[in-house]
Predict the 3D structure of the following.
Amino acid sequence: MLQKAVQNVFVQLSASLEQLTPNQYTQSCSNLFDSSIGQHVRHIIELFQCLTGSYETGKVSYEKRKRDAAIENNKELALHLLKEICYGLDKPNKEMVLEGINIENSESILLIKTNYQREVAYNLDHAVHHMALIRVGINEVSGIELPDTYGVAESTTKFKQVCAQ
């Protein structure tokens, strides 16, 4: 079920990216504090890659992820990676450890018990959040029409439907 939800979000994201020119994808957006749509897409992709790449060891650290400028500068690569991630998500749930930086003491590391499905859900929510920002960038650099649900959490969409009835 989670894999299908991620796939639905990635289809929506991919459809919007396919309409952008390479220049629009990499253009700095003043409404995004001079970041580009490509930088936000890279961020989404890298967190998912970090999770799937950490599955075997069971220890995920989003802070130590690879930051690949090629993803933010190459729309076609990003589209390919979004498809690749969707196919690689279907793994059995298992216990994992999330490694994080201790805010109170940056010299020490926090280890937090989690599981694979929980981290997929986190990444899904995180992707939707960044899609809301990507929507702002798309509105700045293009005239592309996006669906009302683009960058909106599924729970918010359902709540609005209930309120409209």
